[in-house]
Design a protein that fits this description.
Radius of gyration: 23 Å
Helix content: 25-40%
Number of strands: 21
Number of helices: 14
Distance between the termini: 59 Å
Strand order of the largest sheet: 3-2-4-5-6-7
Shape: globular
Bound molecules: S-adenosyl-L-homocysteine, iron/sulfur cluster
Length: 475
């Protein structure tokens, strides 16, 4: 399929601002009639990239005169931003969309839109088209920047709209954003993926790799750092191929180095690194730059070389281990995390043992483990040798058991030590406590008050278990 990158021009973005003004005029009338602003509910499934996209959906909505609500029941506009990486995420999005039917009955003016990776697949688009007639509009990941136009048209034409473009990938700048946090920010540095791992749907629904201009990224971060932001997480499906499409020598390490020159007291995180592209230069940059957190998320997916080959990952377990060893040698006390898939088609019990072996050898701080989920039209879904559910579950349980033991041991090494954390807010599990994360993204609960939210504090660790640590703030 021909899939070129299209730069959305400033003029096209201006047009979207014009559509935002049109919707706002409509919403001014709504305000005059109802004595309140119309409300938008943005519901997000999936990864950080989707969370970042949703902040733009919210930003555009606010610009159009909506106020945000956390309750779908109160909303006049609902936008569901969906995920397709595993079936579970799709089923949840479909089930919740099903529940919105009665809201539409209660509020005739309610608009419902669905976007993101799930509906960018033809068969899911058709599902919604045919089985959820009360959904007003659908748009693909590539059409996010056209949201104001789509919404405006939906008001005008009173018919269902379907906005998709599978032939190109695009990149845009300058849309309004409403960030969830006033001290942590997602910064997409690139979009899409060219890797076509055989199990993964992302390249089909997110288009080809394309990078934002370094100057755009840097000025965005400068602006946020001036406002006091304390953490920037740079996002891309494979950040280590950042810049390849810009036709310069400038790479991801260069971008990190330039970001670290920006004035301010902040942490820089990034994800995700692909082991086939993560370079020694990247690790040297992490070791050198104080602002970059000492945490590397490096998914290895499977420990067996045959499985890696069928997954189309383009590295082997030896190469992976060498890279990790280099990181451990160069970066003092580096935190390592990974993604792992269990039950990939044809994976045998012995081959799964190689995955466990990798966990034991590397000693990751934590691991995100996933039961293989067949994704329509990916090569792995059509393979013979799909693994029965009970075997997958057994392997999954075993993997958790091994990794939880490692995580607990690593956490307990912190007891008595003092570490720096960024406090994120009140603890969800214990409302008397506040929660933050250290450089390695480990959760730390502390006593405190609202004044610590959004601040770096030093904490002495008193207690640790598998999922969190508990500490006391010291001056
Ligand atoms: N670009 C990132 C990951 C994106 S998807 C990377 O390459 O690391 C996030 C994780 O979901 C993947 O790392 C993988 O572990 C998991 N995943 C992707 N497709 C999956 C599938 N079909 N079944 C189970 N897990 C999957
Ligand atoms: Fe999916 Fe592989 Fe691309 Fe990650 S690198 S998004 S796993 S295809």
């Amino acid at each position: 399929m021909d899939n070129k990158t299209i730069n959305i021009s400033q003029e096209q973005i201006e047009q979207q601002y014009a559509f935002m003004r049109l919707v706002k005029e409509r919403n001014n009338v709504f305000y005059a009639e109802n004595g309140r602003l119309p409300r938008v509910h943005v519901l997000t499934f999936g990864c950080q990239q989707n969370e970042a996209d949703s902040e733009y959906l919210a930003g555009m909505s606010v610009e159009m005169g909506y106020e945000k609500t956390e309750n779908a029941e109160d909303a006049d506009l609902i936008v569901v931003n969906t995920c397709a990486v595993r079936e579970h995420a799709e089923l949840r999005a479909l089930s919740i969309t099903g529940q919105f039917k009665h809201l539409k009955k209660a509020n005739k003016n309610l608009k419902i839109g669905i976007c993101g990776c799930m509906v960018t697949q033809e068969h899911r688009k058709d599902d919604i088209k045919n089985k959820y007639p009360y959904v007003d509009f659908l748009f693909g990941t590539n059409m996010l920047w056209k949201f104001p136009e789509i919404l405006n048209e939906s008001f005008d034409r009173k018919k269902r709209l379907f906005y998709f473009d599978h032939e190109s990938s695009n990149i845009w700048e300058g849309l309004p954003v409403k960030r969830e946090s006033d001290f942590k920010a997602w910064i997409s540095v690139m979009y899409g993926c060219n890797n076509f791992c055989s199990y993964c749907v992302v390249p089909y629904v997110r288009g080809r790799e394309r990078s934002r201009q370094p100057s755009e990224i840097i000025s965005q971060i400068k602006d946020l750092a001036k406002k006091g932001y304390k953490e920037f997480t740079l996002l891309g499906q494979n950040v280590n191929s950042y810049g390849k499409d810009l036709n310069t020598d400038y790479d991801f390490s260069d971008l990190l180095t330039d970001i670290c020159k920006i004035e301010g007291d902040f942490w820089v995180r990034f994800m995700t690194s692909h082991p086939k592209d993560a370079s020694k230069k990247l690790i040297d940059t992490m070791a050198r730059e104080e602002k970059i957190v000492k945490h590397l998320h490096l998914p290895f997916q499977a420990g067996n070389d045959r499985v890696l080959k069928v997954m189309n990952r383009k590295y082997d377990s030896k190469g992976y281990f060498e890279l990790v060893s280099y990181a451990k040698e160069k970066i003092h006390n580096v935190g390592l995390t990974s993604d792992v898939i269990v039950g990939f088609p044809t994976e045998t019990d012995e081959e799964f043992e190689d995955t466990l072996e990798m966990l034991r050898k590397v000693e990751f701080d934590s691991v995100y483990s996933f039961i293989y989920s067949p994704r329509k039209d990916t090569p792995a879904a059509a393979m013979e040798g799909q693994i029965p559910d009970e075997v997958k579950k057994k392997r999954f349980t075993k993997l958790l058991e091994v990794q939880n033991g490692i995580t607990k041991d690593l956490n307990s090494e912190y007891v008595g030590k003092t570490i720096k954390i960024l406090v994120e807010g009140k603890s969800k599990s214990d409302t008397d406590k506040y929660t933050g994360r250290n450089e390695k993204n480990r959760i730390v609960h502390i006593d405190g008050d609202d004044s610590v939210i959004g601040k770096f504090v030093h904490v002495r660790i008193d207690k640790a278990d598998t999922f969190a640590m508990y500490g006391t703030v010291i001056n």
